[in-house]
TrEMBL record:
Domain Carbohydrate kinase PfkB: 27-285
Species assigned in the record: Streptomyces kurssanovii
A Pfam short name: PfkB
Domain of life: Bacteria
Protein name as catalogued: 1-phosphofructokinase
Classification lineage: Bacteria, Bacillati, Actinomycetota, Actinomycetes, Kitasatosporales
GO molecular function list: 1-phosphofructokinase activity
TM regions (residue ranges): none
Listed SUPFAM superfamilies: Ribokinase-like
Gene symbol of the encoding locus: pfkB
Length: 315
């Protein structure tokens, strides 16, 4: 079972438009609403793969009630923590050429008692979890050290933790030795305080995060592939995507694939790449099912192309 923790979940509304014309009345060709937030997306991908998952989320207002219902419809057990503020609603506008415009709300301001209730809910549910995935930005009211406290409590309970966050929250948590951290290229560059122009730069940055406490680093490099740096060495994975429809949630799908494949080594990296590649070819934040995966298209190698220039250098 994969337990996910999303301290700032959302309802994700996606509108597909011919083009985004500022100041005009626009009519969407397609619109949908999905349960959102990085940890929720991981749960959705885990459930789509046929595995059990429990999502720990703060829920507030009618938006929180709708999120709770949508989680159930996706086969996810919600471990909801009632909060006074309303769950946020995020908007994604997708143009015909694939350009994305996102509007993310701030979310509720959690009181100290609500923050503690989230930690306690994770503790009480951690005993049955194979992995705990802690994902996303922290809402107002939670200090950057909140994830560090969560990792420490989880390790005391004997569980493994995968952490997907950025900035001060990631930096503060490294000292508690999360079992896996999952930055994208921009988050990796931010964490080490320097730009990344090549795959080799990304490898050095991942190794630095390991020196600072992370036991393994699973780094998404966008269309350039993914890196895994852990005790077994450095691994590089890649698969072609025929058409990119939406990259929303692709990193979350990758993490779900990685964890459901054991969370270590090249086999898990291959699953991460397969899930991420499938996700970018689906609309909105739809998570891939096994039928969407093409594992034969994935290449994983220890011969890392260190000199390869990143298609989208991170600064």
């Amino acid at each position: 079972m994969i337990l996910t923790v999303t301290p700032n979940p959302s309802l994700d509304r996606t509108y597909e438009l011919p083009s985004l014309d500022r100041g005009a009345v626009l009519r969407a060709a397609v619109d949908r609403v999905d349960p959102g937030g990085k940890g929720v997306n991981v749960s959705r991908a885990v459930a789509a793969a046929g595995h059990r998952t429990v999502a720990v989320v703060p829920l507030g207002g009618p938006e929180g009630a709708l999120l709770d219902r949508l989680l159930g419809e996706h086969g996810i057990e919600a471990a909801g923590v009632p909060v006074a503020g309303s769950t946020r609603v995020n908007i994604t506008l997708v143009e015909r050429d694939g350009t994305l415009t996102k509007v993310n709300a701030a979310g509720p301001d959690l009181a100290p008692a609500e923050a503690e209730a989230l930690l306690e809910t994770v503790r009480t549910r951690s005993a049955e979890a194979d992995w705990i995935a802690c994902c996303g930005s922290l809402p107002r009211g939670l200090r950057p050290e909140w994830y560090a406290e969560l990792v420490a409590r989880t390790h005391r309970a004997g569980a493994r933790v995968a952490l997907d966050t950025s900035g001060a929250a990631l930096t503060a948590a490294l000292g508690e030795r999360p079992d896996v951290v999952k930055p994208n290229a921009e988050e990796l560059a931010e964490a080490v305080g320097r730009p990344l122009a090549t795959v080799g730069d990304a490898v050095k940055a991942a190794e630095e995060l390991r020196d600072r406490g992370a036991r393994a680093v699973l780094a998404s490099l966008g269309a350039d592939g993914q890196l895994l740096v852990d005790d077994t060495g450095v691994w590089f994975g890649h698969a072609p995507a025929e058409a990119v429809r939406s990259n929303v949630g692709a990193g979350d799908a990758s993490l779900a694939g990685f964890l459901t494949a054991g969370g270590a080594g090249p086999v898990a990296l291959a699953a991460a790449v397969a899930h991420g590649t499938a996700a970018v070819q689906l609309p909105g934040s739809v998570m891939p099912s096994p039928a969407d995966l093409d594992p034969e298209a994935v290449t994983v190698t220890a011969s890392v192309p260190l000199d390869r220039v990143l298609g989208e250098p991170a600064s």
